[in-house]
Write a structure and sequence with these properties.
The structure holds 2 protein chains of 2 kinds. Chain A is mostly beta strands. Chain A contains 3 helices and 47 strands. Chain A folds into 2 domains: 9-89, Sandwich (Immunoglobulin-like); 226-774, Maltoporin, Chain A. Chain A has a 24-stranded mixed beta sheet that branches. A 5-stranded mixed beta sheet of chain A has the order 9-14-15-12-13. In chain A, strands 1, 4, 7 and 8 form a 4-stranded mixed beta sheet that branches. Chain A starts with 11 loop residues before the first strand and ends with a strand. Chain B folds into 2 domains: 30-120 and 392-406, no CATH class; 126-352, Methylamine Dehydrogenase, Chain H, CATH 2.130.10. Chain B has helices spanning 2-22, 289-293, and strands at 43-49, 56-62, 69-70, 77-78, 88-90, 93-97, 105-112, 115-123, 130-137, 140-146, 153-159, 165-170, 181-190, 193-201, 212-218, 224-230, 246-248, 254-258, 270-274, 287-288, 297-304, 307-313, 324-332, 337-341, 348-349, 356-359, 362-367, 374-380, 386-392, 398-404. Classes of the chains: A mainly beta, B mainly beta. At the A-B interface, strand 36, strand 37, strand 39, strand 40 and strand 43 of A face helix 1, strand 4 and strand 8 of B. Chain B: Residues 1-22 form the signal peptide.
């Protein structure tokens, strides 16, 4: 299958052998190439390979796979003979950039599990100035809609569900535990080794009420010491620095640290803003710079502990600090210009992590995590000026963002604990039991009106998940079945009821979710998979009980729930040094009881949370990847989703006239988008152990209506226009990736970029990044 | 191999440049543009579709209200980011102080052929919460509201042609001790005086200062002439950006509907009277709407001869305003009696909506029915009969306002 017979057997020989890891495990999908030729092969699952039809002569054989150190061996092939050549590859903690994915990495393995999951090796992006959001935005089914430049607010959607329907994790721990500064638009790509996006169906090990899916960042958990330090700067006075590393002391004590710093003035040009011309007495359009959008965030997370002791495979205690300072430039669209409003926050956490494999008995593994977080932020809106895009201002009669001036303090102390037991009975049957407890108190008050929150809400969520995985038919079939129990304890000193009386509020509610995920390999290269989950997004304490002054309680509020179904297929083909990977999937979401605050009894000052709407989503998505050795890589993907409003009757009615918008496409949502990326790299082009790599990518979003598609005359309808945003980057690496320098041009066609209606994003921008990486 | 590599490099570079240029299409993110309209459709109907957060408002023109049908399918102007139904119709134009959006502008629009065309726009940042308006004459528009904290009464006088604006704070009695702020409600210009319905509010659910208040200002000096108070009701007038709550009858007698709603759990809605030329309530007049109609009244529209159409709560103990619980009745304001309830109409939905418009002998009442078709109903003022007029395609969440444009 690999080679076309092109030469007579007398003049050729073969190279055969096996590749194993340092621990002796056979390694499949390792790329074996003969330097300077087109010859090569991939190892099979058992680690064996064969390169035949090799013309007699001397060669350098290279064995490479992402995540492992590349190895070379010299051989001489004799006609008619088979040379045996074995490789042992050592695991890399963080691979150097530029080694294009040629093997079956953990990400690929995850993609070929039963779950609908995007798994992204971030190494490919390690030399770019990307944050995690911009990397994930290029994958199928995901759309990140940012309101502006660095640090701006964003809405992360997975297969059409967004907002609170999507949960974020770092190594299985909710990011909120690290503090509210830890958001995906902050975290530099270098801090994660891999990112997993679970669509609609979550394994029990991620304990959360995720209605639409979850993102899990996986950091480097290897034992080896390493250091990855980078700094970039560029347009709009933007600076990013990131450090992650690990050292092991002589006494066996391991210390790890991750830190980042982001800064930007975000003073990009807003094109064609309307400004009042006093002389002409007209609004005229001008290009202006943003003037109040400075953003700064930093984070340090460190832990110290031991590994591979008798009593613990890992035991770490840690602490972290993070902070964010953000000037607020616009409201929900760019017509609302702010010039003084601020958001400032900081968080402190302490953590404890313990892992013990083969506890009590073989195959029973335990991991425990516990944390306490103090998370605080302040929103300051104390000016009474109205600002305009040229930076000028006039006195006004209310605060910038709301009717009244505020200096609102939000404090969310949190206690979190997670215990995970996994038990492998035998290679065919495994169990996973996961328990998380997440308790948060929500305190808000406006310092200008009061000195503390007199009515803090407190919620304790217990989540228990039990999963059973079977691996059958010689590993061709895997099935996972799971059940999840959610219990919430809610407490608030006071709740305002609909008639204006105060009652104390506390309660316990519980819900049960369940699901399954299956994968079947029809052929070694072709697999199909399907998954289902009855998923929830639990009510928050404020939604159930209101806030005690302008939101009244609604104890009948139901959680948001959804039936999520995924089905897909994937193909991996290898031919010589070419590798293709293709996957396609269909998904269905039937989500009900979306919770929104609704004005209560025509009293525009008072609202109540209600279950207002239902959505049904059908979608397809597909991705193609092609690699030619470590020289060329390309990925093309496309996502299409049809999200229909499934709300049949107006809120409050259970009958009568059917809503005009019933079965209409949900407005203001991208429904067709795609990405293409290509990279071309060459080793040793400009000296020994160097690599030069050119990266290009494009993101396309088809235009969409801001409002209901079927209604209103077309010419009057607001749209978010077509977007084709392209980025280019060039990276030069020395000493096998120890030193790297990259130059990048984002949005190089200088498109007027929009994720949201009338919220312009940055135009063309240039960045330079320097990165030092040793292991 | 290096030749292949170089070729690939070149191809990639070329490809990216090409796609870059081809993608560099210009688009215009401006919404509706067009020539200034020199007229308009005769009538306009404002509607809202969808449940939160996907609610959208539209305005659609109609040449007649007596027959035919109107639908938003591919028809009507989407007003998002331009205007909302808190808007002022006058002599073929709409005037929009961006009260809900905070664009900080005052805009003058014309509506014709599915186009809401901007005639003129000027910066307007003095007020962001305009609650009511009145016309001193055809070229002089007065806008009234309160500041963000609710402790100042703000007034802007606008030249309707040039949109030149004069802003001022009006003197009123200070907010009584123990109350949080004030709300302005109705506004009418009568014989050189401005009559402003006022409320002093508390933090909900504490009830508002329990008085029905009218502040009377001399125009244009804007001196406070009198501030009337009466303890039998609260919530004087209605914010007429959204609905009408006052009637000036043919004799010059001025009737104001008080509508307590959430301002008081106990006081009834009632009509007060200020007789022509007076600056005090007619002490002998108090028309208790709760008693007369069996439920509080929310809006009131003059149909001439001292009569009015009132919208009142006709059913239900519904906790929200989303149910179909509103009925219409004809009242005789002079005699303080109910003429009759318009029981021919289905129950309507939505409280603060401009659903009645009077033209000649016809009063048009736009009703959002829970089942069956939605119509603009025609009340024949002379004969007292009710018939269906223009049909409005069903399933729209709110029928917001109906305006005569020409």
């Amino acid at each position: 299958m690999l080679m076309v017979i092109s030469a007579s057997a007398q003049q050729t020989g073969s190279i055969a052998g096996a590749v194993r890891s340092a621990t002796g495990q056979p390694l499949g999908d390792v790329a074996i190439t003969l330097k300077g030729t087109n010859k090569g092969a991939y190892t099979k699952k058992d680690g064996n390979y064969l390169v035949d039809q090799v013309p007699a002569g001397s060669y350098t054989v290279v064995a490479s796979m992402l995540g492992y150190t590349r190895q070379e061996q010299a051989v001489t092939v004799t006609a008619g003979k088979t040379i045996t050549l074995r490789f042992t590859l050592a695991e890399e903690s963080l691979s150097r950039e530029g080694v294009t994915v040629t093997g079956k990495t953990q990400s690929r393995q995850l993609k070929e599990s039963g779950y609908a999951v995007n798994a992204i090796d971030t190494k490919r992006f390690a030399n770019t100035t990307s944050d995690i959001n911009s990397v994930l935005n290029r994958t199928t089914g995901v759309k990140v809609r940012e309101q502006g430049g660095m640090g701006s607010e964003f809405n992360f959607s997975i297969n059409g569900l967004s907002g609170r329907a999507v949960r974020f994790f770092i190594d299985g721990i909710p990011t909120e535990v690290m503090g509210s500064s830890m958001t995906l638009n902050n975290i530099p790509v270098n801090l994660a080794e891999r990112v997993e996006i679970y669509k609609g169906v979550l394994p029990v090990s991620l304990g959360a009420d995720a209605l639409g899916g979850a993102v899990n960042l996986v950091t480097n958990q290897n034992i080896k010491n390493y250091l990855d330090a980078s700094y970039s700067f560029g347009s709009f006075n933007t600076h990013r620095a990131a450090v992650t590393g690990q050292v092991t002391g002589k006494s066996g004590i391991v210390a790890r640290v991750s830190a980042f710093l982001n800064y930007s003035d975000n003073n990009y040009i807003m094109k064609a803003m309307e400004l009042w011309d006093e002389d002409k007495q007209l609004y005229v359009k001008k290009d202006v710079r943003r003037f109040h959008d400075q953003y700064r965030s930093y984070m340090t997370q460190a832990e110290v502990g031991v590994m591979n002791k008798k009593w613990a495979d890992a035991f770490f205690v840690g602490a972290g600090f993070s902070a964010t300072d953000r000037e607020i430039q616009t409201g929900s669209n760019q017509d609302n210009v702010y010039g003084a409003a601020m958001q400032n926050g900081h968080a402190f956490n302490t953590t404890l992590r313990y892992r013990k494999d083969h506890l009590f008995t073989d195959g029973l593994n335990l991991s425990v995590f516990a944390a306490h977080t103090e998370d605080k932020y302040t929103i300051t809106d104390t000016t009474a000026y109205r600002y305009f895009w040229d930076g000028s201002r006039v006195p006004g009669n209310q605060a910038e963002m709301g009717a009244i001036k505020q200096r609102t303090h939000i404090s969310r102390p949190r206690n979190f604990a997670r215990a995970n037991f996994s038990y492998t009975l035998n290679p065919m049957h495994g169990f996973n039991l996961n328990y998380t407890f997440d308790q948060v108190t929500n305190k808000n008050y406006n310092e200008l009106l009061t000195d503390k929150d007199h009515n803090p809400g407190k919620i304790g969520k217990h989540m228990v998940g039990l999963g059973y995985q079977q691996t059958l038919l010689n590993s061709r079939l895997t099935n996972t079945f799971f059940g999840k129990w959610y219990g919430m304890q809610l407490q608030q000193p006071e709740m305002l009821s609909g008639n204006g009386s105060y009652v104390s509020a506390s309660g316990f509610k519980s819900y049960f979710g369940y699901g399954m995920a299956s994968r079947f390999n029809i052929l070694p290269v072709l697999g199909v998979k399907a998954s289902y989950e009855k998923a929830y997004r639990l009510q928050e304490v404020g939604e159930l009980f209101g806030n005690g002054y302008d939101q009244i309680g609604n104890t009948k509020l139901k959680p948001e729930s959804s039936n999520n179904v995924n089905a897909g297929a994937f193909v991996t083909l290898k031919k010589g040094q070419h590798r293709f990977y293709a996957e396609g999937s269909w998904y269905f979401r039937n989500a009900a009881d979306f919770i929104y605050a609704v004005v209560y009894q025509s009293n525009s000052r008072v609202s109540r949370y209600e279950n207002t709407s239902k959505v049904q989503i059908n979608g397809v998505e597909g991705e193609l990847q092609y690699d030619f050795r470590d020289i060329f890589h390309t990925t093309v993907n496309v996502s299409y989703q049809q999200a229909l409003n499934n709300t049949k009757y107006a809120p409050g009615s259970n009958g009568g006239t059917v809503e005009a918008t019933y079965r209409n496409k949900i407005p203001n949502q991208p429904w067709l988008f795609g990405n293409a990326l290509a990279s071309l790299g060459r080793n040793n082009l400009l000296g020994k152990d160097t690599r030069l790599q050119l990266n290009w990518d494009m993101q396309y979003v088809h235009w969409f209506y801001l409002t209901w598609e079927a209604y209103g005359a077309a010419a009057t309808k607001n749209r978010v226009p077509n977007q084709y945003i392209q980025n280019l980057g060039l990276t030069y690496s020395l000493q096998n990736g120890k030193y790297n320098i990259s130059a990048e041009c984002r949005n190089f066609t200088d498109q007027r970029a929009y994720d949201n209606f009338r919220l312009q994003k940055p135009g063309r921008a240039y960045y330079v990044k320097m990165r030092y990486f040793i292991k | 191999m290096s030749i292949l590599t170089r070729k690939l490099f070149c191809a990639a570079a070329l490809l990216s440049v090409l796609t870059g240029f081809s993608a560099c299409e210009k688009y215009d993110d401006d919404i509706v543009s067009g020539n200034p309209g020199n007229g308009s459709d005769n009538y306009a109907i404002w509607m809202q579709l969808g449940s939160w957060p996907n609610t959208t408002q539209y305005v659609v023109g109609a040449s007649s209200l007596t027959s035919g049908a109107v639908s938003l399918k591919g028809n009507g102007v989407e007003v998002t980011s331009k205007a909302d139904y808190g808007i002022i119709p006058h002599k073929g134009y709409y005037y929009y102080p961006s009260t809900n959006s905070t664009n900080g502008r005052l805009s003058k629009y014309s509506l014709k052929d599915n186009q809401l065309t901007t005639i003129k726009e000027v910066p307007f940042t003095y007020q962001t919460g305009v609650s009511s308006y009145t016309w001193v004459d055809d070229a002089t528009l007065v806008l009234m509201g309160t500041n963000g904290r609710g402790n100042k009464l703000l007034c802007s006088v606008v030249d309707a042609n040039t949109l030149a604006i004069k802003n001022m704070e009006l003197p009123v009695n200070p907010v009584p001790a123990g109350y949080a702020g004030m709300m302005s409600r109705s506004l009418d210009y009568i014989n050189g005086k401005l009559y402003v319905g006022l409320v002093y509010t508390a933090d909900w659910p504490a009830p508002a200062y329990p008085k029905a208040i009218v502040a009377i200002f001399d125009y244009p000096s804007m001196k406070l002439v009198a501030q009337l108070e009466d303890g039998r009701s609260v919530g004087m007038g209605q914010a007429n950006m959204w609905m009408s709550g006052t009637v000036l009858d043919d004799k010059g007698d001025y009737y104001l509907l008080s509508s307590p709603g959430w301002l008081s759990p106990s006081l009834p809605s009632a009509v007060y009277k200020i007789s022509a030329g007076q600056q005090q309530y007619d002490a002998s007049y108090f028309f208790n709407m709760n008693q007369a109609l069996g439920g509080p009244a929310f809006s009131m529209y003059s149909i001439g001869n001292g009569r009015a159409i009132v919208k009142y709560k006709a059913a239900g103990e519904a906790n929200t305003d989303e149910g179909h619980i509103y009925g219409y009745a004809i009242v005789d304001l002079v005699r303080a009696t109910v003429v009759r309830k318009l029981t021919e109409l289905p129950l309507d939905k939505g409280e603060s909506l401009q659903t009645v418009m009077v033209e000649g002998n016809n009063a048009y009442i736009m009703v959002n029915a829970e089942t069956g078709k939605d119509y603009v109903w025609i009340y024949d003022i002379a004969n007292g009969t009710v018939n269906t007029g223009l049909e409005i395609a069903g399933g729209y969440d709110y029928l917001l306002r109906i305006d005569k444009l020409k």
